[in-house]
């Protein structure tokens, strides 16, 4: 038994970094340049781009919780994850053959339906592993940021040298490789102790969880929607496709060191204060971009993303795990991801597209800063609940 545990710990130690690196390498090749592809190759308008890009997060709202319930029910997260990875890879490849608006809508729905399972299930597996083996989630998740950072530079360079369609081929191949690596991840899962729907109802009885969903909607929405508009922002300031890659390299690459330090900072300052600080930094960044500063200063301030994203992701995810009942943690993570990665991103992306059509790119970032500021008020609400020692859930004190 002890030998089996040590083998699982050793396998996870090497498998998780490689897996996260290649998964986010795939995301990094497609997401930052997809809006540029839709604008320059497909010839879509700002409103059409906003519609296409917002389809992904709004589809996630409905599909991601279903993936979480399937995972909780089957207790085979690695199998479900592998299926999602190969399905996303195939759809991403088919995406490259489509150029009509109506078919781009269809492909966006299919891609989002498959892709929405990848991050929450991966995170659920990783968090179960680190808690069981005394590891640090931030030390694993930072490899995703490194992969994303490298990918945007490689994707931008290949697109400049060959064609923008290269992003789909790179995306598909990296996810296929990730699917093979997924089988090296730990396959154990936690047993179900209650019905998933009952667990979801229990989650909404936790004030801190509800407030965190609101904060996630308003803070994560702009952070992730920025991946869609940052490339257009760089282009309008005079940057090239390679320049977009450099900007994302600086932004995503700076996340890794903060993720590595996240566990220590959480232990020292607490999750909610850390979320407040990181959100304030994001708010200031979006407001700065509203004034459309010189490209040089955009490159410099891109590293601020490391501080905000690198701290927000581990702290928020750990907080969700801490306040959720054990038997529905996968569902809680999926629901949390659906609100931030789904509803919040859809809202910010959709409204951003119309603002881009009717104004300029700076207006999009002013909107992002306002959303983030309001989201910080929800974090204050969580602090007040904790200060009053409001119970996380029935029968348990905060």
From TrEMBL:
Gene3D superfamilies to which the protein is assigned, alphabetical: MFS general substrate transporter like domains
GO cellular component, one term: plasma membrane
Organism superkingdom: Bacteria
Transmembrane segments: 15-37, 49-67, 79-98, 104-130, 142-158, 164-183, 203-223, 229-251, 272-291, 297-320, 332-352, 364-387
Sequence ranges assigned to domain Major facilitator superfamily (MFS) profile in this UniProt record: 1-190, 208-398
GO molecular function, one term: cytidine transmembrane transporter activity
Keywords carried by this UniProt record: Cell membrane, Membrane, Transmembrane, Transmembrane helix, Transport
CDD domains in UniProt: MFS_MFSD6 (cd17335)
Membrane-related topology note: Multi-pass membrane protein
InterPro entries: HcaT-like, MFS_assoc_dom, MFS_dom, MFS_trans_sf
Cell compartments where the protein resides: Cell membrane
PANTHER family linked: BLL5896 PROTEIN, NUCLEOSIDE PERMEASE NUPG-RELATED
Name of protein: MFS transporter
Species annotation: Parageobacillus thermoglucosidasius (Geobacillus thermoglucosidasius)
């Amino acid at each position: 038994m002890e030998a089996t545990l040590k083998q699982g710990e050793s396998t996870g130690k090497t498998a998780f970094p490689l897996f996260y690196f290649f998964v986010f390498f795939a995301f990094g090749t497609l997401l930052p340049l997809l809006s540029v592809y839709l604008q320059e190759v497909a010839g879509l308008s700002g409103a059409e781009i906003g519609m296409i890009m917002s389809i992904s997060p709004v589809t996630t709202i409905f599909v991601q919780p279903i993936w979480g319930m399937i995972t909780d029910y089957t207790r085979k997260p690695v199998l479900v994850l592998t299926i999602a990875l190969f399905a996303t890879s195939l759809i991403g490849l088919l995406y490259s053959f489509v150029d009509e608006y109506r078919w781009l809508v269809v492909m966006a729905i299919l891609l989002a339906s498959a892709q929405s399972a990848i991050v929450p299930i991966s995170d659920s597996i990783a968090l179960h592993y680190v808690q069981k083996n005394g590891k640090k989630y931030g030390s694993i998740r930072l490899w995703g940021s490194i992969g994303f950072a490298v990918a945007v530079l490689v994707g931008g360079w290949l697109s400049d040298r060959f064609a923008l369609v290269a992003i789909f081929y790179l995306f598909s191949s990296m996810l296929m490789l990730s699917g093979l690596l997924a089988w090296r991840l730990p396959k154990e899962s936690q047993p179900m102790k209650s019905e998933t729907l009952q667990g979801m109802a229990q989650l909404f009885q936790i004030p801190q969880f509800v407030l965190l969903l609101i904060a996630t909607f308003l803070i994560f929405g702009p952070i992730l929607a920025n991946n869609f508009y940052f490339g257009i922002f760089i282009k309008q300031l005079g940057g090239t496709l390679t320049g977009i890659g450099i900007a994302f390299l600086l932004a995503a690459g700076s996340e890794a060191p903060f993720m590595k330090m996240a566990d220590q900072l959480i232990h020292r300052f607490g999750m909610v204060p850390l979320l407040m600080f990181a959100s304030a930094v994001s708010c200031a960044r979006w407001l700065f971009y509203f004034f459309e500063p010189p490209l040089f200063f955009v490159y410099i301030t891109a590293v601020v993303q490391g501080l905000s994203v690198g701290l927000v992701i581990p702290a928020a995810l750990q907080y969700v795990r801490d306040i959720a009942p054990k038997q529905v943690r996968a569902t809680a993570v999926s629901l949390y991801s659906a609100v931030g990665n789904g509803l919040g991103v859809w809202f910010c992306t959709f409204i951003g597209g119309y603002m881009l059509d009717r104004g300029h790119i700076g207006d999009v970032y002013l909107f992002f800063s306002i959303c983030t500021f309001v989201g910080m008020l929800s974090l204050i609400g969580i602090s007040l609940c904790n200060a009053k020692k409001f119970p996380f859930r029935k029968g348990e004190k905060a």
